[in-house]
Amino acid sequence: MAGIIFTIFNTIAESIYPGFNVGKDALSDLGASGYNTTLLWDGQLFIVSILGLLAVTLLLFRSSLSEYLQGTLIRILYLLPVIGSLIVSLVPDNTVLVVHSLGAFLTFVFGAISAIYAFRFTKAPFRYFSLLLGIVSLVAISFFGDPSILGFGGVERIVVYPFTIWGIAFGAYLTAF
Questions:
Q1: CA-to-CA distance for 26 and 152, rounded, in angstroms?
Q2: Is residue 66 predicted with pLDDT exceeding 80?
């Protein structure tokens, strides 16, 4: 549900933000303080983060998969992307950039790693889908070093969209249990 909300509201925000360019502009620009999309984008990201916290809590503590997710490090692995997105929602990129960037880093890196780790406890063919999307997202992070081909916004979307799609698919996968 969270990934669906993010995708829909992100698309709405991109379409109403004056002069927004998906190739050049960061997703977080949609939530920058003082713009017409600030409340919409930061609000949806906050709600998505809260839904993510609820989902991770259910996954880690109440699902039939919890036996595969034992241990503090694994629980932290699945909590970090959600905590990162919560930070991003609360600290716009044009306020405290260091804190905002830390939140984005947590979301990007650990979102991708979470998808990759799901390979260990999901069944084929979904396990391969998880692995592929996680790897695409993780590898795409390296393109931030030289975003000249896709632009910063393009690279960011190649990082974010695979693990967002994975999150939507993972939620659907878990409903079978």
A1: 7
A2: no
What is the spatial distance between Cα 88 and Cα 106, in angstroms, rounded to a whole number? Answer: 10
Would the pLDDT of 69 be above 70? no
Residue 143 · residue 155 · CB < 8 Å: yes
**Segment (H or E) for 156:** helix 151-174
Tens digits of residue pLDDT in 99-117:
999 999 999 999 999 999 9
Find all residues with CB under 8 Å of 109, minimum gap 6, and list them.
138, 141
Residues 6+ apart with CB under 8 A from 133: 115, 162, 163, 165, 166
Q: Which two tokens stand for residue 39?
A: 């409340």
Using a 10 angstrom Cβ sphere, with 0-12 exposed, 13-18 middle and 19 or more buried, the burial of residue 108 is buried
Where does the pLDDT of residue 167 fall: very low under 50, low under 70, confident under 90, or very high at 90 and above? very high
Angstrom CA distances, 104 to 28, 69, 90, 107, stand at: 9, 24, 12, 5
Residue 135 CA to residue 141 CA, distance in Å, equals: 10
With pLDDT > 70 as the criterion, what percentage of the chain qualifies? 94
How far is 91 from 33, CA to CA, in rounded Å? Answer: 9
Burial of 170 (0-12, 13-18, 19+ CB in 10 A): buried
